[in-house]
Each structure stands twice: as C-alpha cells, then as structure tokens.
Queue: 4 jobs
Job 1
Amino acid sequence: MVPKIRRGSRTHGLLAYLYGPGKRDEHTDPHLVGSWDGFAPDPGRDPEATLARLAAALDLRVKQAGIRAPAQHVWHCSVRTDPGDRLLSDDEWNTVARRLVQAVNLAPEGDPDGCRWVAVRHADDHIHILATMVRGDLRRPRMNYDFKKAQAECRRIEQEMGLRRLQPGDGTAAKAPTSAERFKAERTGRPETSRETLRTAVRQSLAGAAGEGEFFTRLREAGVRVKLRHAPSGDVLGYSVALPGDRNRDREPVWFPGSTLAPDLSLPKIRRRLADGTPEPVMQDDAGEARRDWSAPAHQRRRATTIAERAATALDEDDDEAAGQLVGVGELLDALAQTSPAATRAELGAAARAFERATRSHIRAEQADTRAIRSAARGIIQAGGALGRGEDGGATAMLLSTLVLVTIAAVRWHSARGHAQQAAASRQAAEHLRAAYRQAATAPMRTLRDQGHTLPEPERRRYEAAIRAALPDPGTRAGAEPTHYALAATLAQAEQAGHDPETLLRKAVALRELDTAEDVNDVLVWRLRRLAHLPAHPGDTSRSTSGTGSPNAPANRTGVRPTSATTARPAPPDPRNRPPRR
C-alpha cells in the first residue's frame, strides 16, 4: 500500500479532477467512501449534490480563518494497493482513510475540532483523501513528518488486512517517476521515462571513471546533454542532464539535476566517491594471466572475479566499512551491463538497476577504499565489448557466478542492519544475475560435462573420491549429482596442468561458504579454473599447460580431448584484403 502526499490551494479544482473522467477516461464511478462526519454531500451518488456544495463545506473553516489560513491549505493523499492485492470494499477503504487522517494528526479520534476531509474512490485499487488544513478552533494542525507517519500506518494496515507488506523506506531511495513522466514516455514510445534513462546513463558513465572530467566526457559520448553550473569564480558547483529531443511544452530541454536522479548522484557526492576510490592503474599482468593469448575482455573479467571475491569477504566480516564495497559492486555491475553480449545484457542491466538501491543507505564508510573494485570496473570498460562465446563467454560466466555470491552477502549485510529495501534489492539483483549466469554458462558447462563423460572410468572414480572427501556434508556432496562430470573434467585438466587435484579442491572449498550456492558444482568449477589458471572456456585445454604449473607437468593421461575450438584456430586476415580507408 503506497501513499503519495501533495499539497495545494484549489479545493474545487482537485474535486473536479477526482470526480471527472480522468486524463485518459480512467476514472469510473467516482464516489465518496468516507468523510469527516459521514454526511458530506456526494456528487457521485447524490443527484442533488454538486462539486461547489462539497467544496464549500470543506473550505468553511478556511474562509473563517481568513488570512490565518495557510496558502497551501489542501492536503491531498492518494493511497494505492499492490496489483496483486485483493480488492478492498468501500467500508475497508473508509477504515484506511480514517486511520491515515488520524495518523498524520489531521483528524485525531475523538477530537471534535479535527480538520474536514473526504475520501473519493474512482478506481478499484486506490482512493484519494482530500483535507483542508484548518481545525475547528481555526488553528493549523501539526503536520510534522506526515509522509513518514502515513507510511508507518500503511505498513500496519497491510499486516492487519492481509495485504502485500512493502518494505519500510529510509529516505535514501531515488525519486520515482511522476505520472506525467510515465504518460509522456508512453506517448513517445519510450520503454522508460527520461528520468530513469538518465539515471542509468549517469551511473554507467561514473563506473570506473578516474576523475570528474572523464565522467562528464563519458556522459557526452553517451549522447546525453550536459549543463554545468558555475560559481562566479568559475568553479563547477553542479550539473544537469537532459535527453536530446526531450522538451517541455515551451520547447525547452527538460533538465534533471544530478541530485534529483538519485541522492548519490549529486556532484559533491560524486566527487567524494572519486576521492575515496580513484581507480588503480589497470594491470595487464595479473596472477600470470598475461601469458595467455586471451582477449582483453576475458582478462579483465577474470581479474574482476578475484576482486569481487574480496568484496564478498569484506561483506561477510559484518563491518560498516563494507558500505564502500557495495558502491564498487554497483559500478562493476554497471560496467558489465555496458560491455556484455546481447544474450546477457538485458538481465545484467536489470541486475544493475536493482542493485543500485542496495548501494545507498545511511551508513557511509568514512575510510572506504574502493580503488581495487573501481579499477576492475574501469578495466572492463576499457577492454570493450565481450563476445558471448569462447574465452569471453566463459570468463563472463566465471565472474557472474562470483557476483551471485556477492549479492547474497549483500543481502545478509543489509538484513543485519535492518535495511529492508536494500536487502530486497540485493535479492532481486541476485535473481537477475542467476538468470544471466545460466545464459552465459550453458555452453561451457555442457562442454565440460561432455569432457567428463569421456574420462576413463578409473580416472573418474578417483576424482569422485576426491570430491566426496572434500565435501563431507551429504547435503552438498557434489559426487551424488549428475553434474559432477563437469567438476571431474576440471580436476582432470588441473592435474594435466601440474596441480594436485585434491589439494586444489580443498583450497577451492575453503575459499568461501557454499551453503548459499544454487549449484555447488558450478561454483567449484569456476573457483578451480581460476585458481589453476585454466581457460574459462573448457575447449581451450591445450593452453592450460602454457606458462603455469610445474615445468615437468605430466602428459595428457586424463582422456580429455580438446575440441575443435582449440585445434582449428582461424588464420589472421590478409592485410591486402582489407577494405580501403575512407
């Protein structure tokens, strides 16, 4: 149940809208479901009642107060149920209205001098409460924190009436689009409002940015109009953004200051974030990865996986300083959403938008060090778009598997502090990441399972014994699952690269807990491949012995056959066949 509060000065004008057809003929059967005394004239059901008569009754005390009445004397609150809720009767809506006007101190129960109010219903799922803010003793009601009080009362009503219980807010959420903005998006055929599009563009431009200048440059390169606000000294005080072609009725651009897009997108807070986490230089050689001829997107995704593991560890430590890591994870998701292939881009964009809510709370790490994770986001941006196949696709699946665990750690971190909305946003982001992971991991995991099936029976039994020894808990024993073939194939390739499979598997299990993993086998596969520096694409087994492991690595005795992706590499293009430069 969502209350939305506004204030105005035209009682008759608001009544005309509430009893009218609506902006798009969406109002049906407008009528009163409650009033201050239960006897207010109802123009919707009483043929003798008029809007003027009802407005006069509501404004009686306003006129009596004269100049002592507030200029904005109309209090307007719309209350809407969730689309999945049952339909409330008129009597139930009357109860809702009476409880809300009492909660905000407009008409306390038993107070004969309470303000006059009416509740109008013109749709199945919501009502509008209109009150005039002058009491019977001609004093103004004390209306401090009316929005918070209305929200709290709605949470109690939801519980008592069996409605969907929304999460209590803490004032750190981004401003939702207005009805006018949503209607404009529908008229112009846009999938979302300008406010939402600009918020995403600003966040993506900020992901991994090294400084303020780079941030504004990225914004302009993304096709966003940018207007800076300068002090007389020439210093930049703030900024506003607009979409090209988005104009108001006066044909002027519709500008949105950064602070109105989200509380953490004002220029002072952006500067604070850049100061806390200036990205480290993007390293091309990380844990021996530069010895591979993998692509830059694959390199940076593997590097980001290691850094994301550290962020999850920081969140598990239950320290308030981990709040900075949440901001960095949000930037990492924004970077992935920009550079991932089309197959996973939609889910990653949804995950980034959901997790955006989890990055803001009243807890701010005073000494947040987000340089490493912001550097990972920067590296992903600089590496460019990743392919959805080969090493790029495997590295994407490896990173997404880790990010699912990071978002689950964020759920626990927020839940421990009572951040209900942030915890719910983290859960939603985890679901989108799981969907993106399933898309990215389908091909590499299928190849690994096929390779596991080709292992000689004695080899496979040896690896299964190692798996059972490393995972003694029957509830998580991977060897009992049909997908253990992928894990066995990975252990075989690690042994071929010169690693001891049992030692490596124990190290992978000890990295982090596995209770929250949707598929323990998948999580361990990616941990093993990262620890052993194996290619993320399982077909690239021929490269696994190049530059890693023991110099006296044993020959291939595992029966894992390299696929055609490793043996048939495309020849480099002939420079003579290049098209002429224009």
Note: The beta strands are 2-8, 31-35, 74-80, 116-121, 126-132, 225-230, 236-242, 256-257.
Job 2
Amino acid sequence: MNTKSNSTRHGGQILVEALEAQGVNRVFCIPGESYLAALDGLYESGIGTIVARQEGGAAMMAEAHGKLTGKPGVAFVTRGPGATNASSGVHVAFQDSTPMVLFIGQVASDQRDREAFQEVDYRAMFGPLAKWVGEIDRLDRIPEYVSHAFHVAQNGRPGPVVLSLPEDMLSSVGQAVIAPKAALVSGKASDADVQAIAERLAAAERPMIVVGGGGWTAEAAQALGKFAEAAALPVGASFRCQDYLDNRHPNYAGDVGIGINPALAKRVKEADVLLVLGARMGEMTTSGYTLLNAPVPEQSLIHIYPDASEIGRVYRPELGVVAKPAEIVQQLLAVADKARGKRASDVEAARAAYEAWQQPNETPGALKMEQVIGHLNKVLGDDAILTNGAGNYASWLHRYYRYRGWRTQLAPTSGSMGYGLPAAVAAKLERPEQEVVCLAGDGCYQMVMQEFGTAAQYGANILVLVCDNGMYGTIRMHQQKHYPKRPSGTSLVNPDFAMIAKAYGCYGATATSNAEFETAFAEARQANKPALIHLKMDPAALSPKIRLEEI
C-alpha cells in the first residue's frame, strides 16, 4: 500500500507521485504560474526537470523521449500561449504514433468560461490532435486521470494525451491513493491469423513487407530481420522508419518514402502479397496514395496494426489483423519455415536495386552533402543516433545514410520543421553514452535554435550540422517547378551559426569544403561539449538528383 495515500498534501505533490508510479524519470517544461504547485511537487522528487526555451521545443523533446524509449514522454506547459506553442509537438506525436502526455496549466475552476487570462478550451483545441483530452477537476481523482492517460497513450495505436490542470485543483490540499503503473494489453494475434499470414506468404511469388508505426522494440527489430531472412522476404521501411531493420541486412530493400527508389516503387506496386506490419500507409509512404489503389489495392494486402479503426480506413485488406507489431513479429518468426517460398533470387534482386540506389550522385559545390553523409557512415558507430527535422537537406540523409541499430533515427513523419534539435537534446539526455548528431537546414534550425542553450545548460553534448543554402530549399524547389524564375518568400539572410554556438560556451566551426568538414567533425567529436558545424552549401544543390537550374 502506498505510504502516502492517507497523508495530506497539495495537488502538485499528488500529481508528481502519480508520475513516479508510472515510471517517469524526466519531464520537459517551460515554467508557468498556472502550475506552480506541480513545479513544487517536482522539487524534491526523483524526476529530472529539463527547462527548455520554448514550449514547442519542450513538447518535441517529450515526443522524442517517447519515440526513443517506447514509454510516454512527459511535458508541462502553461496555459494559453504555452499550450498553443506546445501543439506542434502534440501533432508530431499523433502522426508518429508516439506515446506522450502533455500537462497544461489551466485557469482556476471558479473563473472558467469567462475568457479569463489565457483561458482556452483544451478539449476543443486538442481534440483533433490527441488521442484523448481531459481536465482534472478534483484533487482526489488526479491518480485516476494520470493512470488513464498512461493507459491511453500506450495501448492500441500509441499517441499523445493532453491533461488540463486547473490552478486551484493543484494548489488545494487533500488525500489521494496513487494508482499503480499502467497495465498494457498483450497485443498478440490469434494462432489462426498467424497461420493464415504464413500460408499467404508461402504461396506468394512476389511478396513484400513494409514496416513502420509505433509499438516496436529492439527485440522486435531483431526478430524482423530473422523472420525476413528465414521466410525469404524483402523488407521496405515506411517513411522515416529506416532504423527498424539494419540497413546492411541482405533482405533490406530501402525506404518507402519521399524520393523513393523507382525500382523499389515498382516492386511495391507489382507485389502479389503486401504485408504491412505496423505502418499506416499514409501519403508519404504511398507516394501520394499511388503505390496502392484506394480503396481496393491490386496487391493482396495483409494489414497488421494495433488499432482496428485504421485497418480498412483507406485500403481494404484481404486480411486485417489487430496486433502490436512487437508481438506479432515474434509470432511470425516462430512459423517462418511455413511462410518461406522459393524467392531467394527475388530478395537478391531487391537488395541489388538498393545497393545501386546507394551510389551517390555528384552535386554542385565544394561541400557536397553526399560526401558529408558518406563520412558519417564511415566514422559513426552502429549505435549513433541521428535526428532531423524537415527540409531538402534530409533527402541526402534518408538516401545515403545506413541506419544500423534500433532507434538510431529520430525524425518526424509529420514533416515538422525544427524537430531535429530538441529531439537530439532529449536523446542525449536519455542515452549520454551514445553519439547524437542532429542535421538541420538553415530555416529548420532557426525555428528552434534557442534549444541549443538547453543542450549547453544540461551538458547534452550533441553535434549539430546546420546546412545553410540561404533559402527554404524545399519550397524553393516547388516554386521553381510551378513558377519558374519567380522566387518569392523563400530567401534567408542567416547569422554566423558557429559564432552563436561559441556564445553559449560551446564548440562552433564553419565548413565550406569537404576537407574542412571532416576536420571540424573530428574536432567536434572530441570537444566534450555541445558542438555545431555551420555547413555553407551551394544553393544550386537542391536534392541528391536535382539542381536548381535544371528545374
């Protein structure tokens, strides 16, 4: 029995005890007067409190923590502007199926519905962005609400939960019994479903696996590789899920995302059986819903997903199974011999197409992104974590970097700019023994560059590569396609990013050539402090295969 259950304490203390019971070891926040009691509860707790610089950064740190650990990342923000800023991180968590709990301070209950200072109806605001939104109006129900939040965030399709905290509820005193850690459903498939999947794969001539989504583990990633090899199946990773299978694995066929290898796109289209394991098959993974016909694909679709509401939402499967990917992949491994077909040459062809796609195209300029990524491949360890936000700079990373370990890729499937830096901070705090490298564009980085100060404050020795081409490159590319030679609203005048890093007492360097980059990268890795390298790129190099003047 909890020894504090009968003691009198304020709501903030009860809330923190409830978080401790759920195994929370770190929270990310921007302080606010609307939840002072919760901050007081954190004061002598065993929970680390990371103070970010802006609520969007705090929320993205919490999302990255959830993505990396598989457990809900937790953020605290104040009401009104704090909540609206944090919504960007909630959206990332929703589209990425990441468990997360966001706590928001709220006006006192006796001031509700008066449009009090910074008052917002959070149920209405976050309803489309979160799995569940609640408001705790009674001190004695704090443990109930927190327990429910952690159950919802982790069961079924993982995702974000938002809880509103009225100021007077937190500051009032009383008693509450703390609920134990959330009990999660097993998520296993029936033996009949597993057998049916094996039989369909065994009879297929051109099968393909596409993996992705939330709810995976390192053990499941290992089992996926063993199953694919034993059953002779090529594996494609959905958008920004490239670390689900070691990219050196002989059955890995590449990423099914933006800028897909045409040979891989053809393979997905021509598959007779398509096993989708955990992925939603959204716009990015289906190349704008063109790789599969909606609502009835030409492929025989087997869709395995932890939430029944997603199965059949866009594509009608011939077999739909509600199960957690981490569970069913272990079950499939046990029947891999029954799923095997005579397809060794097909797997080899898929792998050969991936290897050919990996050969770099030369791009303009003295500092070439394909060589930057090639250098990262050569010098980084298998457990190095790479983070990024959104922008054309990421296309080189996705195409040429080979992810070797589970949860070494932290990137938003929502395509949110600014994600890479806060994600890197969260990753380094959680895994200080692993190298963490953030790639960001000049526009992407400047949306969150203040979070470099968070890294400096907490000794999160990340290494940031800022790719500076003086523009919002992705939008400039589309602009040139549709309105050639009429650039509008896409140019940037940038600061000396390396000098700003030095102002924080950290390592900063500028590179204008491949040789300068390699020297600076070696120095940054030995700096024993947060580091940033400002990469001066040629504006003509828009992507691995497109030059500005060629559009």
Note: Residues 81-96 form the longest helix (16 residues).
Job 3
Amino acid sequence: MSTTKYIFVTGGVSSSLGKGIIAASLAKLLQARGYKVTIQKLDPYINVDPGTLNPYEHGECYVTDDGAETDLDLGHYERFLNVSTSQANNVTTGKIYQSVIQKERRGEFLGKTVQVIPHITNEIKERVQILGKSGEFDIVITEIGGTVGDIESLPYIEAVRQLKWELGDDNALVIHLTLVPYLKAAGELKTKPTQHSVKTLMESGIRADILVCRTEHHLSDDLRRKLALFCNVQKEAVIESIDASTIYDVPNLMLEEGLDAIVLNKLNLSNTTSPNLDRWNQFLTRHKNPKSTVNIGLIGKYVELQDSYKSILESFIHAGAANEVKVNVISIHSEYINKDNIAEKFSKLNAVLVAPGFGERGIEGKVEAVRYAREQEIPFLGICLGMQMAVIEYARNVLGLKKANSTEMNADTPFPVIDLMEDQKSITNKGGTMRLGAWKCELQKDSLVDSVYGSTHIEERHRHRYEYNNTFRDQLEEAGMKSTGINQETNLVEIVEIPSHPWFVGVQYHPEYKSTVASPHPLFVAFVKAALDHSEK
C-alpha cells in the first residue's frame, strides 16, 4: 500500500490561470502543518526541456542545483517551499517519448508494438511516482501543464486516471482549476465554462475532487451550490480563488477557503495541527508596508515579457521586504540605449541591473548601461551576460582595448576578454550542454562579496557557455577590476568587482534562482540596500 499521497492539479477553460501558484500555495499550507511536500510539473510540449526555447515563447528557463533546465513554475515551488527541486520535478513529453524510444531501441519491450497506452502512460506514471518512492515526501503535488481537452495533454490525463484508480481515493485526488468569468454586460459571473471544462475532464474518466475557481468577484453561496451540483463535487469542495494583489497572498486566501483542510480530509490525513504561517506573514507585512522606495533599472533584451526575468523580479520582492523597501523595477530595453539618451533614461534610477541573455542583439546598449553606472557611481549588478558586459566595458574604456568583445558576439575580436569555455568547443548539440547547475566558488577575503555572503565558500547555479578569459585577468586586475570569486576546480572567474566604486559587482552565475521568501538572496538584499543608500544621498 502506498504511504505517499498524490495530488494532481489540472486546468480548464484558459491557460495562465495560475495552477503553479495554487499548487505552491497548497504545498505551503501542508508544509506549514508539518508535512513533507514536493511539487512536480508535467509539461505537454515535445521539447525535451525549455533550455532551447526563446524567453518570448515560454518565459525564463529555471535551473535547479542538479543542472535541470526547467519550467519557470519550479521557481515558484522553490520560492514558496524553500526546498530545492531537481531533474525529477519537471517532466516533458519530449523526455517521455525520448525514454520510451530508447527502451524500444534496446529491445526492452520484447517485440511488442509500442503504443501510447500502455507504454507512454506507464512511463508517465513512473515519472510521477519517482519522488513518492524516494521516501522523502508525505505528499507529492503534480501540476499538469496546459488545459483539459488539449490534444497534447491527453496521455497525461489518461495516466492520472489510471493512477487514481490504482492508488485509491485515499491516496490520490484531483484538483481542477477553472475560470468563472464575469460578464460586464450581464453583470454576473457565469458558470457554464466551468461546467464544460469539468464535463471534458469527466469524458476522460476523471472526476474532480476539488474545484478551484479563478474569479474577479466573490462567489455567492448560490453559485457555489450550483457549481457543486452541476460539477459533481461537494459544496465545501468549491474553492474561490479571487484575484490577489500579490501571489504571496494566495496561501492565506486558500487557508481562509479551507483548501488544505478538505485535501487532508479526502486523503485521510491528520487535520489537527493549524498551519504555522508566522514567518510567511512577517514577510508579507514588510512587503506591504515599506518605509522607502527605490528605482532599479532592469536592462534586458526581453523586457516586453515580464516572465522572461521572473526570478529576478521575485528576488527584488524578497530583498525589498528584507530592507522594508518598495523596489520599483523599471524595465529598459537594451536595444534602445545609446550615449545620447542614456542620461535621460537613467536619471531616476538608484541602481542598475544588467540582465542575463544570449546573442548579439542589444549588446551595445548593455555595455553603455555598464559604462554609465560605473562612471556615475550608481550601484551596479551584472548577472551572467551582464557580468560579461561589465568586463567588456572595462576592457574597452579603462584598458583602452576598443575592440574588446565576447567571441559570442564577434568571433574575430582581437581582444576576446570573454571566450567560449574550453569544454564547450567540441559541442554541437545545443540542448542541455551548457555549464549547468550548482558550482562551488571561493571568495576573496575582505572583498565586497565576502561581506555580502558572510562566508568565503558559496555554491551558486549556472547557465552559460562563455567565460571570463584569464589571459586578460592580470591587465584587468591591475586596472582596478578585481576577480573576487573563483571556481577552484576550473579556475573560472565567477565574480568581478570594482573596489573604488561604491557598489559594483558582476557574477557569472544566477543568484536569482536561489532567492526564496524564507531566504532572500544576500546579493539582492545588499544590492537593494546599496540602491537605498544611493537614493538617500
């Protein structure tokens, strides 16, 4: 008999209703009651992972400690739970089919015809249960990407149907997230889209145990009764999910609705301990009652889509609360920055962050942003490509190497201060081949980053192919750009800073991936504090 309980979160009517936030909020409440919980995401696209997807297509690519390139929802899971995820927490159709085809090539199916049922669905079921069978978790929440009725989601829905039947009602339940739209002309909420969505789910053999209804207006008692009757759920299992001012309100809203209590009752688990959300609510209080405001420029190439920099934006929320400061993030497209307009664009900024990215577009604008922040002594943080731009800018404008560049942008540059990593030169496949996951870094004693971290040993997550070229290290150091973080194993420069500047740091890694509500990232906390100091001057 299974000791791990499984919760499946499906969606209907519309995408982007917030399945990930509902899953993370429920997990937070269950964790706050003392249960060990993890969340996984099943993505229906055929890409093996989102690593090769343009940020405009799918938002940011989130990276785990073990080097998995995953859906951005895993960032929400980690930020809410303060627990690391792994390769096992994100499964795609591409991974499923790749695994089944490899098994078929090895002859593991003994001459059978390989089909969606049972071979694909068996593979999905195995992946769903990997985390449960590890013995680490009491409850595994699985979010199914897309909406019910999508062709690409059908194998996942069928796998859930089979698992629910195999595990039994005490060990598995389905939460269906749906939309109850408000028609302004009629002046009322309409339940019909939800009814159709639940009907589609039932046609696939699954009855929703709990209905979570996204809505702009409160659900009346009559409306809840109607939904319960037509959607075949208990009235107390109709949960309102009203629009919130911040995603961090959602756990409290779900607590008020009793979502965690009904889940525990249905799974036959103890419901006697109230969730301890004291620390969470302390964060919310600080977030909602800032004592000051700072303006931080986010200089990037994908600023039209906020999800492209999701983890950075959330890190600013965590760091803002830690400093009791409201962080106004002002997105500035690097493609439209030049010497003539930069003073105007940056006139109200208290700090500048140059964001990660790939490719040549918008690069000169990023270099110009670094120059202005350095010369005007505005607090600066460069992440990944942003750190590389800082090195290029310093080489050009301080060392006088006017044609300094990265070989990613100009393969023939005479001064390749940023170059392709040695172990990347023989690689031809793009997917999953970068320097990925957590790597150790040794910090220079008495450096700015040493004081920020309070330790000389750190471990941070990476996602890059190009690196600081050590050939130019002595020149850069002598000119005042210090290498204050080194990976001892590869001798790779991970951090640069300019001690003569009030606050100037570039990091090759992605600190935003490790910032959570319970543990705001120290680099973001210090950067926001530097912005606050700048604003007070």
Note: The chain has a mean pLDDT of 90.
Job 4
Amino acid sequence: MNSAAYDAAYDAVVVGGGHNGLVAAAYLARAGRRVAVLERMDHTGGAAVSARAFAGVDARLSRYSYLVSLLPKKIVSDLGLDLDLRRRRYSSYTPYGDGRGLLVDNGDDAATAAGFRALTGGDREFTAWQDFYGRTRRVAEAVFPTLTEPLPERAQLRKLVADAAGEETWQALFERPVGEAVESAFADDVVRGIVLTDALIGTFAHAHDPSLRQNACFLYHVIGNGTGDWDVPVGGMGAVSGALERAARGAGAEILTGCEVTSVQADGGSAEVGFTDASGAERTVGARWVLCNASPRELARLVGDTAPAEPVEGAQLKVNMLLTRLPRLRDRSVDPRAAFAGTFHIAEGYRELETAYRQAASGGLPSPAPSEIYCHSLTDPSILSPELRQRGYQTLTLFGLHQPARLFPAHDRESALRAVLDALDAVLDEPLTDCLARDAEGEFCIEARTPLDLDADLGLPGGNIFHRPLVFPFAEAADPTAGRWGVGTPYAANLLLCGAGAPRGGGVSGIPGHNAAMAVLGA
C-alpha cells in the first residue's frame, strides 16, 4: 500500500455514520486517535434519524428506528451525551373479543391484575406473567452488563444465567424454541401472543422455529439496561444521533458526509479506503484500522469478496402517521391516550401470529395482518410544533410483523398498508382515515416502508433491521476470527465490524461501536 498516494492518513476510518459508527468514532477520538467517518448520505444517523416526513407539516418523526432499549447508560455517561430517554407509563394494550382489551399498566399492578382477571376469569395468568418476567428480569440483570465487556464464551454466559435465574431458564431461552416456554407458562391465547411478539419483531420465524432466531430476538427485546424497558427519546430518534455526532466532533473526529466508500483494502497492519467525495472526486485515505458500520453484505462487496452472500431478509412493514386526534376505540373502558401510549397490539394473538407466519411463508400477505403501534407524541410532544400541539395532533408509528422481503414486489406497498390498516380499523370505533391529517398538498399524512424500501433507502440487506439474523451474545469456540470483543471479520485483523451486524448488534444500542473501539484500543 502506497502511503504517498493517500489524500490523508488516520489511525482509524469508520465506514458509515450511523449511530454505532458515531459511538466508535467518539470513543476513539476521546482516546486521542485521529479518526475519520465516511458517510454516504448528506447527514449522519443512518436509521436513527428524525425527519419532516410530510410536505409543509412541522412534525419531526422518527422515520425508521423509533424506541431505545439497548443503549447502555455506560455509553451515555462515557461520552457525556445530553439525552432525555423517558419510560412509558403503559406497557401495552391488546384488544380482544368484542369491545374489550387488556391494558398492562407499569404504574398500577392492581389495575393490570384486574385486566388479566377480566380476560381469563382468574388470577393464574397474571401470577404466571409476574413469574415469567421476574425470571427474564434476572436474566437481563445478568446478561446486559456483559454486552459492553469482552465477548463471553457460551459456558460463561450459561453459568451467569443459571446462577441468576436457574438452569431451566437457560434451557428455555437459549436451547429450546421459545414457544415451548410461552406455552408452558401461559394458557391464554391473547397473553401468549403478547409475550411472543418480542421474539418476532423484525424476525421472520415462528414460535417453534428450530433455528432459535426467535429466541435471540426475544432476548434482545427483554434485556435492555437490565430492565427490558423501551424508552422514548425526547426530540425523536434524531436527538440520539445528534448527541452522538456532537460527541464525536467535540472529541476531534472528522465526519465527512456525501462520501460513498467504494473499496476497502486491509492486510492486518495497514489499510486503505477508496471513496467518492461530495464533489464527485475519487479519493483514497490510509488508516491503521477500518471499522465498518455498514452491513456484512456491504463489507464483502467493498473488499471484493465474490463468495455467494448468505440470504438475508427483513420481515416488517414500517408505517408513520400524523393524526389530527387519536381515534376512538371500540373498548370504551380504556382512554385512547393510555391505549396508544404503550405498545398497541393488533391481531397478535398466539394463533393469529402462527397463521400469519404460515400465510407469509406461502407467499401471501397475512390476513388479519399483525402489527403493533405506539404514539410517540403522548410521551414526547416536542416533536410537534406548538401549533400542532395546541390543535391536539398526535403521531402514530406502526410496525407490521410477518411482512418478509419475499412478499415484495409480488405484493405492492399499498396492499400491505391496506392490510394492516384494515386490521387496525377492526378494533376502532371509527375509520382511521377520519383522524389522519393532510399535508400541504392535501394528501393523507401517512407513509409506509417495506423491507425492499429499507434496503434501497438505507442499505439494510433485504430490509433486515439487524443487518443479518441476530445471534446470541456469546462466542462459539469454533469462530477464531471474532477476537476478544467479537467484532473481527474473516478478511484482516485490522478490519472490524462496528454496526448492527456484529455479534451483540441490532437495535439502537451503540454497543457494537463501543466494542469495536475497545478492540482498537486494546482494552
């Protein structure tokens, strides 16, 4: 590698300015390393951004990622991030039957117990609920701190989990399909479905999938910060990426937007990165380390790996909406402001989820289409202009399950959107369209993104929000390339993953960025 040909040389180059890349850059720059971040788009943040999605409407929606669970307080503290992450009062609301629903209230156990009693006719399910999530809480307390430590081996993590919650809990979550644990713990179909959804968000699998990819998904959804709480970022998801960019720049990192990386070469001792800058000029920089915040699929392309890529697909429909008011529910006993403040489950009974999976696996759009919804602006109205707040406007975010990339474009985006809105309308006392706001051009304030859209917009392989199927947060002895922190690649010792596709990646966490930085720093 000819250093004389470089436009510049750095200790580390980060490919991609998503939130994980910004975390890595901030840690390295704070440690005195010269760091450059190369971002293809004209802004940083990747999927963790806010945007004015509707023409002429002053509402900043979290366009792709929307809640924060896995961002460790350690990263927030280490980097001095100015963030306000608010816990939601209500965990979930699930309509069932004709005009009834189950509201899980984080602030009122007695009311939640009464809701379970009305659903099931007794106290068994609520007692089982408390026991089940008591065990996952103990798992979370044991496992979450390890995510920002060197990657443990399977036996080490197994001992931590068994000591905290029992060997049977390890077996239930790490060795056997999670459907077995759900069916053993709960008898009611509605309750089983509420629990199972955490295993399916962004993951195309079923309760008894032998791959256990649903188990890994479930684990990451219940261990965040040792509590499993999913928090609302005040100011929207862009506030998270904005704070990280300020931290990285403040520490001295160079952040170059409009720069599309075209090649990466690394030999273990040095590296060079080719890219096209914002002016269209071809440039090359040298580095001791390269940290890839893009997907493993993209990294393979950049290094010239021509081996067939592992098939990857996402499995979700993302819908953003702005309403003039919240819709009325058929369940008149629950205030819509409570029902929509947590996770509002639609067509997510246990049997409904299984049916939807089988329909999608056969190439059809699920009907009824399962989804979950929440209203950011109930917890954080700051994303709306003062005028919209005064007029009572609210946002809704809908996340449709079992909508794998394979369904598109055989089915179009409008058909998928109609399917999830039909399922929502079935539990409302009025059509949702009666509440949808209109933009400056008179169009409804609603946008939908399929997995193929996410691939085109953000480079997510097959629209997979985790870059590839999630894996458990431990090292298998058979993987010699992962390294102490689990971020190594098969290409060179100085070429690391720092994005969602790394072990312990996925979600808005910053964890892979932290771990790649620690690998560089020799921690």
Note: The domain at 3-48+74-79+234-312+465-521 is CATH 3.50.50.60 (FAD/NAD(P)-binding domain).
